[in-house]
From TrEMBL:
Record InterPro entries: 4Fe4S_Fe-S-bd, 4Fe4S_Fe_S_CS, ARM-like, ARM-type_fold, QueG, QueG_DUF1730
Gene: queG
Species: Lapidilactobacillus mulanensis
PROSITE patterns per UniProt: 4FE4S_FER_1, 4FE4S_FER_2
Keyword check for Repeat: no
Protein's recorded name: tRNA epoxyqueuosine(34) reductase QueG
UniProt cross-references to Gene3D superfamilies, sorted A to Z: Leucine-rich Repeat Variant (1.25.10.10)
Keyword annotations: 4Fe-4S, Cytoplasm, Iron, Iron-sulfur, Metal-binding, Oxidoreductase, Queuosine biosynthesis, tRNA processing
Residue ranges constituting the 4Fe-4S ferredoxin-type domain according to the UniProt record: 181-210
EC numbers: 1.17.99.6
Entry GO MF terms: epoxyqueuosine reductase activity
Length: 392
């Protein structure tokens, strides 16, 4: 039994710190993941958000001097808003649950720092003890570490599913040169269920726990360019992330934990009024969305998604604001998405709108084929609609 007493003391300390689940694994490599990761990259199924050095992702000893163990942690997050925002004249969007409250990277970083302080105290004055904490943006693959450390199993939706909290947990891990008896990994428990695969709108789940990240709506809401028209209706009014493969999972049924005050969602921020978002200043954006993880890509993707959501909600009252955006917004991606949106929200050929779009297109730089293409498609679609009846 390696450091069994210390391990038990760490588990007790983690509870006091507010870590909801903790597990231990060895610092052995994760090379068994290599063939699948290489294949996924070659197939174009990665997003670019993964750590780019494959050797470092799979080998703790390449990122830490003489590692002995990895301590994996999970924090459960809420899935229901206690107080929905008031009804107003504006339709609302939604952020996926992993973006509710304060950015989870900060919350987990703080918890892991507190745990490291506690372990140092428990382990005595040994100066050679070392730690490397990471969450999400670190080298290691969080779900794979968590699975080997016994926190839960990896479902066919690719996510780590715990018995107590389902998959609604954030994951982090600490590499250390302390040695602990590893916990038992948990095998997949999906059984014959295939609900997440069937429910995923863009068919992004490959069926064996792997994902085509490029097709995942969560990724699509985080890109900075134009969104491929195929995915636009699929995001509905969700302007950041996607929770569908979690909502349908039986292991998530009834899971809604409010353990951490800073994970509580601000209803006005996680279900924001869409039209006012379109002309928000940077300062207003930072104030309202800055603390949330969903703002990490900045204002533009969320505004682009807000425009798409307005179309999905069939909100014709947004048309005047969209026209203002086409006229005044300095960003071609936003102008072109707005041009698409006004036409999607129209069902009759309006000569004034057609002229407006033709003029707007002529003002766009000619060296941006995607932008011009977006305008041209909108113009062609409007031109092919039945005429607006003569009002005279
Ligand atoms: C890149 C990334 C994304 C990308 C790609 C996702 C992906 N699955 O690859 C995008 C932007 C699409 C994304 C979306 C989301 N993400 Co993300 N993402 C990551 C990140 C940074 C890297 C993941 C990675 O390396 N993927 C590449 C490989 C590993 O994926 P793959 O080829 O599909 O391989 C899978 C299979 O091999 C399978 N697998 C391995 N062994 C076994 C064994 C069995 C038996 C089975 C069945 C499967 C299986 O698991 C692998 C991972 O899914 C991690 C953080 C981290 N550093 O790990 C967070 C992370 C996975 N994301 C997270 C979250 C919350 C999400 C979203 C739910 C957010 C949202 N609401 O929109 C969605 C869920 C989408 C989904 N179904 O996976 C959490 C997941 C927490 C949890 N409970 O599992 C993580 C761990 C961040 C964190 N620290 O909390 N994400
Ligand atoms: S997050 Fe949404 S789009 Fe991505 S795999 Fe899950 S259901 Fe599919
Ligand atoms: S929905 Fe079903 S198949 Fe998908 S992860 Fe959950 S249990 Fe597994």
């Amino acid at each position: 039994m390696k450091n069994e007493q210390l391990k038990q003391q760490i588990i007790a300390a983690s509870k006091e710190i507010g870590i909801d689940k903790i597990g231990f694994t060895t610092a052995a490599n994760f090379e068994y993941m290599r063939p699948s990761l290489v294949k996924q990259k070659a197939a174009g199924h990665t997003t670019g958000f993964e750590h780019q050095n494959l050797d470092e992702r799979l080998n703790p000893d390449q990122i830490f001097d003489q590692p002995r163990s990895i301590i994996a942690i999970a924090l459960a997050y809420p899935t229901k808003i206690s107080e929905r925002p008031q009804r107003t004249e504006f339709k609302r969007g939604q952020f996926a649950r992993a973006s509710w409250g304060v950015d989870y990277h900060h919350i987990l970083d703080e918890k892991m720092d507190a745990l490291i302080v506690a372990i140092r105290k428990l382990a005595g004055a040994d100066q050679t003890i070392d730690f490397k904490p990471m969450v999400d943006t670190g080298e290691l693959i969080d779900v794979v570490v968590a699975q080997r450390a016994g926190l839960g199993f990896i479902g066919l939706n690719g996510l780590l599913i715990t018995q107590e909290f389902g998959s609604y947990v954030y994951l982090g891990e600490i590499i250390t040169n302390l040695e602990f008896t590893p916990d038992e990994p948990i095998a997949n428990q999906c059984g014959t269920c295939r609900r997440c695969i069937a429910a995923c709108p863009p068919d992004a789940l490959l069926g064996d726990g792997r994902l085509n990240g490029q097709r995942c709506l969560s990724y699509q809401t985080q890109t900075k360019g134009l969104m491929d028209p195929e995915f636009r209706p699929m995001i509905r009014n969700v302007i950041y992330g996607c929770d569908i493969c979690q909502i349908v999972c039986p292991f998530n049924k009834g899971k809604n934990f409010h353990f951490h005050a800073d994970m509580e969602p601000d209803p006005e921020a996680v279900m924001p009024e869409l039209v006012p978002m379109l002309t928000m200043t940077n300062k207003e954006f930072k104030l309202k969305f800055g603390p949330m993880s969903g703002s990490w890509r900045g204002k533009k993707p969320l505004q682009r998604n807000a425009i798409i959501a307005l179309v999905n909600l069939k909100d014709r009252s947004a048309i005047p604001k969209l026209l203002e955006v086409i006229d005044h917004d300095p960003r071609p991606i936003i102008r072109a998405t707005a041009a698409w949106a006004v036409v999607e929200l129209s069902d009759l050929k309006n000569k004034d709108l057609l002229d407006f779009l033709i003029t707007a297109k002529s003002k766009e730089a000619s060296d941006q084929p995607e932008i011009n293409h977006e305008y041209q498609n909108a113009i062609d679609k409007l031109a092919s609609m039945p005429e607006l009846p003569n009002q005279n």
